[in-house]
Amino acid sequence: MRYINEDQVLEATKNEWSNIINDLERSFVAKTITPERTSIQVPNAGASLFMPCWIEDANVGIKLVSVRPENAKKGLSTVPATIILLDAETGATEALLQATTITLIRTAGLSAIATRHLANPKSSTLVIFGAGNQARYHVQAMLAVLPSIKRVTICNRSRQNADKLASTLRVEHPELEFSALATSEDPEATQAAVSEADVICTTTNSNQPLFPGSWLKEGAHLNCIGSYTPQMHEFDAEAITRSRITVDTYEGCLEESGELIQALDQGIIRKSDLLADLHEICQYSKSNALDKIRRHEQDITLFKCVGTAIADVSLASFVLKKCEQLGLGMTI
């Protein structure tokens, strides 16, 4: 069995965005078995989730991920995660991977798949809400599928964190224009950024919509990945009613996307307004049928993602193969 730590995951995925996105997409058109995730609410600590999956021609695997907000005070990850991969034929354990970075990368990769198929391929302006690691990975993933991007704006409650991320990204991508703003301090600049954005990614844990849906320009594409409980909301009802809505999985979003759950409960939308999941998006692309989702250039498209074990096991399998090629990891 090979043990792979976070540093080795980073090494195995460095400069691999194109291959990662393509590999994830292949997993969504393959045969899979993905039972419902199991959750344990640990008293006075947080939730622990167990997410199993089988992917044809890949591995059987399970991700164990916990949400522990108090870990920040201890200098630990607030979302520690581990993935166990089994040989599909023998059932033997093949690998144990630290998976916090895998979780970040796979989420951005799913947004990239949706963006590649739904966004305007000539998009030049990108707006990111949030300034953490997920925001950084989303910038990288968007640039991998939209090389036309020229300008990126980081919007965050804290101007300091937005400036820090923008500075890091300027070093990584000196050919692009990066700016940062604090949403609470400069609502007019936030409105201008949203109104001009071709692509918007929301990567926050907000319980309130980040901006009015009326600000969205025609033809924009949104990737919304931050909310994962019925109480959390990154976008409002107007954004929902103005958009052509897609999801990573129907089951996950109907249980965990606060925005969609509330809109359905209030009769703002029906389940039939969720036009496609990632499997269908990938299938429509192969059959030149994406106009079932984006009918006109003016349509706004919204991709809501709460995460799926298909992506976790797919990316973990990719990382395992790369580590075997590079001689990374420890046999235990």
TrEMBL record:
GO BP terms, alphabetized: carboxylic acid metabolic process
InterPro entries listed in its UniProt record: NAD(P)-bd_dom_sf, ODC_Mu_crystall, ODC_N
UniProt GO MF annotations: oxidoreductase activity
Entry's transmembrane regions: none
Gene Ontology CC annotation, any one: cytoplasm
Family stated for the protein in its record: Belongs to the ornithine cyclodeaminase/mu-crystallin family.
Name of this chain's protein: NAD(P)-binding protein
